Amino acid sequence: MYLGDCLEILPTLAAGSVDAVVTDPPYFNVADAEFDRMWQSLDDYIGWLEMRAQQWRRVLKHNGSLLVFGDDKVIAYVQVMMDIMFLLLNNIVWRKTNNMATTYTVNNRCFTTCSERILFYSAQYDPTGWEAVKLDMNNFLPLREYFRQYQDAIGLNIKQINERLGHRKAEHAFYWGSTQWDLPTPEVYAELCEAFPVNHGFLRREYEDLRREYEDLRREYEDLRREYEDLRRVFNADKKTIDVIEGPIVSTKDNTDHPTTKPLWIMKRLVTVCTNAGATILDPFMGSGTTGVACVQTGRKFIGVEIESKYFEIAVKRISEAQLQMRMAI
Length: 330
Hints:
Layout: E1 2-3, H1 6-9, E2 18-23, H2 42-59, E3 60-70, H3 75-82, E4 87-96, E5 115-122, H4 130-134, H5 141-154, H6 158-165, H7 186-195, H8 214-228, E6 244-247, H9 264-274, E7 280-283, H10 290-298, E8 301-306, H11 309-329
Parallel strand pairs: 1-8, 2-3, 2-7, 4-6, 7-8
Antiparallel strand pairs: 3-5, 4-5
Helix pairs in contact: 2-3, 9-10, 10-11
């Protein structure tokens, strides 16, 4: 954990060293606290946050996730800025089930706010992360090599193969030196075998057959796909993983002297869905340390940064107590 401005601390962290950033930054003139009223304008606030978001992008792994809490009115401006650097997956609504008695809503002259927003971003450029894996030319090398040898045995270029087949459905199988390589379907592979039945000296390293059955190819593809799963963005979904999260604000028992303490249950939910045990989580606005406690209790590593010494001390105490409880429970 670090005491200081995250804009000064984060550059000291290695690039691509963090699995997820989960944070609750200042909201801009929402909380009745000095740390939330430092800016002359919304533009100043967005510019301030953008400099820090650039560091989040740098320290995140290529398959990392980012979750940022925000006020319902300001979050739209934050999203416009963040969309330039990350791929937006969800604008999550946290509906607070005990935030305000409904009897007060008639006095507000607007629809009463009983929610906060959580922007959920991916550092990968595609929503599932699978395209990023598949398009890496270092992946699926045995299958790429198989189709390279197959093409050498046929002795034809891709255009000639397409002409023989009468379509282009097989050509991606022969992009073995390209990011566009893909395994053909069973039907297309069967057409290849029928169109080019003669062994032109093509011998697989594993077998002395002209080709092995498609199911063997597919099995190898699936084995490699599972191996590459670790390269994808982690997402441990269940049937309750929807874009509206319902639950209470922090209880009196668990509250701290920090004015915007988040409940432990929601931080644990976010880190367990978006990371695996052993992952490294960064919270650059650590506050009272709830993200750190969630990481301790769920088996994650934690990096926290907090600029205010009084809140830093609260966070250190809470996280240390959580670590002690975990050790005693073993």
